[in-house]
Design a protein that fits this description.
Blueprint (H helix, E strand, L loop, with lengths): L6 H8 L3 H9 L6 E2 L5 E2 L2 H15 L4 H9 L3 H34 L7 E3 L6 E3 L8
Antiparallel strand pairs: 1-2, 3-4
Length: about 140
């Protein structure tokens, strides 16, 4: 494996814009070395950090949360970070479940009605795709 990668190589490899890499550097998440000519050179540590950044961004963690995690990463901080995200997700799920319940109640009086089938571990019900397709 190569020891160093340029910003263009990293951008292509990770399918991420060079501006995003510069932004992560500006925020202190990445610290690439510089060549004699001033080009950014990313090493294995930078690749690892970029993998963490991408994974946590997919989970919608803020740049600040990611920075905090990268500054103090250990088993406990990883658990704390994941627990925090689970709490956020649960708060986002609540209004969606209420909306689903309202929609099912409104539809229960219709002539056609939605047939529901169990889904998930919490026993919630969802419309059957085959029987209730809009297409």
């Amino acid at each position: 494996m190569k020891k160093h990668f340029t910003i263009g190589e990293i951008a292509k490899l990770y399918q991420i814009g060079p501006d995003s890499l510069r932004y992560y550097e500006k925020k202190g998440l990445l610290q690439p070395k510089r060549s004699d000519a001033g080009y950014r050179l990313y090493d294995e540590e930078d690749l690892w950090r970029l993998n963490v950044i991408k994974d946590l961004r997919k989970l919608q963690f803020s740049i600040e949360d990611i920075d905090e995690y990268l500054q103090d990463r250990d088993f406990d901080s990883t658990l704390d970070l994941m627990e925090k995200k689970v709490e956020i997700i649960e708060k986002e799920i609540e209004p969606l479940l209420r909306m689903k319940t309202r929609l099912l109640k409104k539809n229960s009086g219709s002539e056609r009605g939605l047939k529901v089938e169990p889904s998930g571990e919490n026993g919630s019900k969802v419309p059957s795709r085959e029987e209730n397709s809009l297409y």
